[in-house]
Each structure stands twice: as C-alpha cells, then as structure tokens.
Amino acid sequence: LEAGFSEMRNELQSRDALWRRIQLECQQLHTELLKIREYKDMQEIQIKHQSSCVQLTEQLENKNAELLLLAQSQEHQREELNKIRNHLYREEQSHCSEQERMKTEISDLTEELHQKEITIATIMKKASLLERQLKMELEIKDKLLAKQQLLDFRYKVIKSENTHLKEMV
C-alpha cells in the first residue's frame, strides 16, 4: 500500500513538472508570438519584405495552433492530476480507516487478554486454596483412619480378652 502511495506521488510530481514545462513553453511561445507580431508590423511598413511577412504569418498560425494544442494538453494534464489527487486522497482515507480499525481490534484483544489473565490468576488462587483444603482434609482423614485402626485394634484386643475370660469362667 505504501509502495502504491509512493508510485502515485512520483507520478503526481512528474505530471506537475510536465505542467510547469508546458506553462514555460506557453510563456516562451507567447513571447515569440509578441516578437513575431512586432516583426510583422515592421514588415508591413517595409513592403519590400512581404514574402517574409507571409512566412511569419504562417509561423504565427502554426504557433497559435501549437498553443491551442498545448492548452488542450494542459487541461487534460490538469484533469489527470486532479484524478490522481482524488484517488490518492481516497487511498489515504481508506488506509487511515483500516489503521483505526486495527487499533480498535488490537485494543479489544488486549482487553480480552487482560481479562483472561485475571480469570486465570483467580482460578490459580482458587486451585491453590482448594489444594490446601484438600491436603488438610487428607491429613484429618489420615488421623481419623489411624484412630479408627487403633480403636479396631483395641476392640480386637478387648474382644480377645473377653473371649479368653469367658473361656476361663
């Protein structure tokens, strides 16, 4: 996209330079035209130089035709230049809009990522808390199991003593 802008700017500069050359040629032709008119006026005074006057008139007509063609070309160049400027403006606007859309999207994604990071941190804290609770419950159950086993053992011992005492009685 940047290369397209650069190419359009280069073409615009090239056309501006051509436009300036055409204007300079128009000024030179106009100066020549004035000189030719002065020369023609001098020739009209000097009748003996009528043939050169005809030639100057033809040159003047040719120069006028050239000026007319240059003016038409100049107008065409101006129209082309305006088209290129308008196209460049639209491209720049489109590029700016795309950049703004991308900035907004990046901002939204960044916010979403931040929210997910907060959620992950919260889950990690809860998981750590649950893990500690689970360890505490396991310790309590292990203690209760040990007490249960001790009580079972005592029960068996007492039962065995009872059975023994019953036999003795």
TrEMBL record:
The keyword Ribonucleoprotein belongs to this UniProt entry's keyword annotation: no
Coiled-coil boundaries: 57-119
GO cellular component terms attached to this protein's record: centriole; cytoplasm; deuterosome
Annotated localization: Cytoplasm
Any one Gene Ontology BP term: centriole replication
Keywords from the named record: Coiled coil, Cytoplasm
Record has Oxidoreductase as a keyword: no
Protein name: DEUP1 protein
Species: Calonectris borealis (Cory's shearwater)
Phylogenetic classification of the source organism: Eukaryota, Metazoa, Chordata, Craniata, Vertebrata
